């Protein structure tokens, strides 16, 4: 995959132009591009036979493929990767696209989750793909924690944050809990929690439980542990991925094989597998990353592409990501600036909220 730029550099001008025009034609139409079509568009006047010979060379290099005999060529995933890395011309963000995204985010929603849901809808609408938005964990300081019994095997843990955000989770408490042990657990956590975020509280809690073991009875101790685990377990991340625009992909796909692959993709997204890995996709570097076809280890994306970018808080820490999934023939030159702009805008909005 890393050999792409070297292969490009070794190509002569004619081969580069044939390769570029085949990929651009495929991205525009979704179909194979034939030699006769290229004879009409090539800058250099050459015969169809000459172009066919160049195409065969590019096929031998693994950059093009012929889906049917004499039906022209389409780029392979390796060819698309090389085009994206070496020849893609990323356009400036279209004014109309910018206005649609700005209009969606201009509603000044108080709730971050609602705002990001609107971002997902805007992204899928503007790009005609399916959008993914990974929302941040809530990192405002905690104001208050409370445990509420809902029955002998169900309890509610409520977190009130300093910015007014409230989260609650239903969970199964350790056996034998009483109203007094729940109060004791909440008092213990509240004494530690003020001014700390959930992750900061988790760090100091282990030490404090050990240091103040005499003050905390075993029931309250168990309650503290299980209550806080609700925010640390995998279930928390399952609620962090917003998927919008599924219908856009289904409309694109007429073939049964294609529809089946997209259904598998949606099954993966419904199960919200490996959300941490989704975020890690973006952590190797700032800015937009493109994953094509089989490069996607994360979801069943063998015939799809993912364009994804992280967004950051005011401390330049990556806290979430936005992305677009579509067929491999995505209009990358248009989608990349849309995803990049949206990610930067979301980061700015979340940072501004933190200052407020």
UniProtKB/TrEMBL annotation:
Annotated Heat-inducible transcription repressor HrcA C-terminal domain residues: 115-336
GO biological process, one term: negative regulation of DNA-templated transcription
GO terms assigned for molecular function: DNA binding
Keywords, ordered alphabetically: Repressor, Stress response, Transcription, Transcription regulation
Lipid metabolism found in the keyword field: no
Organism domain of life: Bacteria
Protein family (similarity comment): Belongs to the HrcA family.
NCBIfam families named among the record's database cross-references: hrcA
Function in brief: Negative regulator of class I heat shock genes (grpE-dnaK-dnaJ and groELS operons). Prevents heat-shock induction of these operons.
Protein name in the entry: Heat-inducible transcription repressor HrcA
Gene name, Swiss-Prot/TrEMBL: hrcA
